[in-house]
Specification:
The protein has 202 residues and is mostly helical. The protein is 76% helix and 0% strand.
């Protein structure tokens, strides 16, 4: 048996079930049935449901951070605003490509779920550093305008916009059917954030 496709199939099945039923509402048997594997395979590959969750969350963030770091490296010749726009597109695209796991993780984090936060704390610190750094580049050569909102609050707003579709997914999911409409959602949502960036960077 080829390990990688089997592990991927199990992670995809678990992501869908954690998203639909929550971690505690999902059994190993549920995951095995959805992935069409033996329960023993999950024990063999992941040492159980907790190990499977840890693998899924770690894998999600490792890939995510690799993508955003590469995006910044590739945007080195661009100005701060265009570089940040590229970064935002890649963030939303990645979260959307892994929609069910994104929704599950952000839902758990929004409830301050200890078992997800402990797994993700190092990744979240790195993500905050990267996004914060890219955002501060917008104001590098500008003195702070006291008539405008505090930059820390603006950064908080940006972070909020990056997670909102995955916390409030029921607000828009019913309007989206098929791959094309998902791509269109990503494009339009990113454009909305970019318009906001254009406004605050003036």
């Amino acid at each position: 048996m080829n390990d990688i496709p089997t592990k991927r199939k199990v992670v995809e099945a678990a992501s869908a079930l954690f998203y639909q039923k929550g971690f505690h509402g999902t059994s190993v048997r549920d995951i095995a049935e959805k992935a069409s594997v033996n329960v023993s395979s999950i024990s063999y590959y992941f040492k159980g449901k907790q190990g499977l969750l840890e693998f899924a969350v770690s894998n999600y963030y490792e890939e995510y951070l690799s993508i955003i770091e590469t995006t910044l490296e590739e945007s080195i010749e661009l100005d701060a605003l265009e570089s940040l726009k590229n970064l935002i597109y890649k963030i939303i695209q990645y979260k959307h490509m892994n929609l069910q796991l994104s929704c599950f993780i952000h839902r758990e984090l929004s409830m301050d779920s200890v078992f997800v936060r402990e797994m993700a704390v190092t990744y979240l610190a790195k993500e905050n550093y990267i996004i914060g750094n890219a955002f501060s580049g917008l104001f590098k050569n500008k003195t702070e305008d006291k008539s405008k909102p505090d930059r820390q609050y603006l950064l908080m707003q940006l972070k909020g916009m990056l997670v909102t579709p995955y916390i409030l997914h029921n607000e828009w999911r019913s309007q989206i059917v098929g791959e094309y409409s998902h791509s269109l959602f990503v494009k339009r949502y990113v454009q909305t954030i970019c318009n906001w960036l254009d406004y605050i960077a003036r």
